[in-house]
Amino acid sequence: MATAGGARSARLSNVGTIAVGAKADLVMLDLRRAGFAPRNDLLRQAVYADAGASVDMVMVDGRIVVEGGRCTTVDEAAVAAEVSEDAAAFHARNAAARRLTAKIAPYFRQMYDRSWRVDVGTNAFGPEI
Q1: Are residues 52 and 84 in the same domain?
Q2: Within 13 Å, how many C-alpha atoms sit on residue 3's CB side?
Q3: Does 56 lie in the same domain as 10?
Q4: Do 38 and 89 belong to one domain?
Q5: CA distance 70 to 84
Q6: Residues 57 and 87 grouped into a single domain
Q7: I need a labelling partner for 3 at 20 to 30 A (CA). Which of 83, 86, 109, 125 fits?
Q8: What would the pLDDT profile of 36-90 be if each residue is shown by its tens digit?
Q9: 70, 55 Cβ separation under 8 angstroms
Q10: 35: Cβ contacts below 8 Å, ≥ 6 apart
Q11: DSSP states of 74-100 as a string?
Q12: What is the pLDDT of residues 79-129, one digit of tens each?
């Protein structure tokens, strides 16, 4: 479903396979990263045990946009510097929203805690756990 099956379900052609002439969107993972040790079910480990640290290379439509784990299309240092400069203004613009959030957060916490105490009879992680 992640490749050819997903393409078919979305009614897309020329995608979902690694073949000459097909669209080249590809993610290559470094299986030496901690999320893949020990190597068991690689698909599950990619989904549940890795937060993206293993991404080594990404191609989008045949163009490399991540190589060696680094973005090749954006100057990440420049973006980080710009975000740091704008942080104070951002926090000032959002101060009222943070105050409102702080005021209603205890009610959401109470709902969240209460929902965990109710057994709805399903296992979100599947039957084998």
Answers
A1: no
A2: 11
A3: yes
A4: no
A5: 20
A6: no
A7: 125
A8: 999 999 989 988 888 889 999 999 888 999 999 999 999 989 999 999 989 989 9
A9: no
A10: 45, 46, 49, 50, 51, 53, 54
A11: S-HHHHHHHHHHHHHHHHHHTHHHHHH
A12: 999 999 899 899 999 999 999 999 999 999 999 999 888 887 777 666 665
CATH classification at residue 15: 2.30.40.10
Tokens representing 35 are 């999320």
- Please tell me whether residues 25 and 62 are part of one structural domain: yes
Query: Which residue type does 53 have?
Result: A
SS3 66: strand
High-pLDDT (> 90) share of the chain, %? 48
Residue 86 lies in a domain: yes
Number of structural domains in the chain = 2
